[in-house]
Amino acid sequence: ERADAIPRDLTGRRVVITAGGTREPMDPVRFIGNRSSGKQGYALARVAAQRGAQVTLIAGNTIGIEPPAAVDVLHVTTAEQMGTAVDKHAVGADAVIMAAAVADFRPTTVAVAKIKKGSGNEPDSIPLTKNRDILAGLVQARRDGQLTGTVIVGFAAETGDEHADVLTHARAKLQRKGCDLLVVNAVGEGRAFEVDNNDGWLLGADGTEQALDHGSKALLASRVLDALGPLLR
Ligand code: CTP
Ligand code: CA
């Protein structure tokens, strides 16, 4: 796509995008993390900015990629920090896109000093506490009237299992989360079974379902923003 062919359809819009994975500390040197690269969220931020949006990128841990130019970047570490930043910046935003891999659980306690071997209190397990769901919180805030007119987009990586295929799980997640759009990536070995070359779907709360063909993260970002446009207030 030529640069001059990029639509400027998001001019004047304010969009909050999360990217990367959160890290949940257990002591000053250790954490529980995940394999999110941050690439998809960064691609969304870049393309949204190219299309004219004022973008706030709330970034967790990434593989060391450079944030796009012309984007306000806020770096966070934990799910709690990400939630606080999202809640703050979502106010008055036209859209929030939760591309980040938010840790579902954090170590219940964080040791102030490094946990040492042979110290007599070596842990044989790590108690975990569930993190709050940032996306569900946004949906709830909108229902409660604290967040008006903000379009809320979720991401999900799904595999099929013995109970249901990817799409069935994804539809249930869209219902459960109550967001306006859910970007579904089919992951895992079973996927060729269910999806014939498609890497995922874009599910709308209005029942629309669009297959997403395999392509670059920038292309996927464009598809997501294309679907977002008509939902903006
Ligand atoms: N998400 C969030 N806060 C969390 C967990 C997830 O905002 N504590 C967001 C993610 O950023 C993503 C969406 O919710 O946009 C779906 O995440 P996913 O992990 O697929 O959903 P979960 O509800 O955590 O379900 P699962 O048990 O499948 O992990
Ligand atoms: Ca999760």
Structure write-up:
With 233 residues, the chain is an alpha/beta fold. The protein has a single domain (9-104, 129-231), classed as CoaB-like (Rossmann fold, 3-Layer(aba) Sandwich). Helices cover 27% and strands 25% of the residues. It contains 6 helices and 12 strands. The chain has helices spanning 39-50, 79-90, 134-143, 166-177, 191-195, 217-228, and strands at residues 14-19, 24-27, 30-32, 54-59, 72-75, 95-98, 105-107, 128-130, 151-158, 181-186, 198-204, 209-213. Helix 1 packs across helix 6 (217-228). It is globular, with a radius of gyration of 19 Å. The chain binds cytidine-5'-triphosphate (CTP) and calcium ion. Cytidine-5'-triphosphate is lined by residues 79, 98, 100, 102, 104, 131, 133-135, 154-156.
Structure at a glance:
This is Coenzyme A biosynthesis bifunctional protein CoaBC. The chain is of the alpha/beta class and 233 residues long. Helices cover 27% and strands 25% of the residues.
Total strands: the figure is 12
CATH topology heading: Rossmann fold
Strand content: 25-35%
- The CATH architecture assignment turns out to be 3-Layer(aba) Sandwich
Family: In the N-terminal section; belongs to the HFCD (homo-oligomeric flavin containing Cys decarboxylase) superfamily.
Protein name: Coenzyme A biosynthesis bifunctional protein CoaBC
EC number: 4.1.1.36, 6.3.2.5
Function: Catalyzes two sequential steps in the biosynthesis of coenzyme A. In the first step cysteine is conjugated to 4'-phosphopantothenate to form 4-phosphopantothenoylcysteine. In the second step the latter compound is decarboxylated to form 4'-phosphopantotheine.
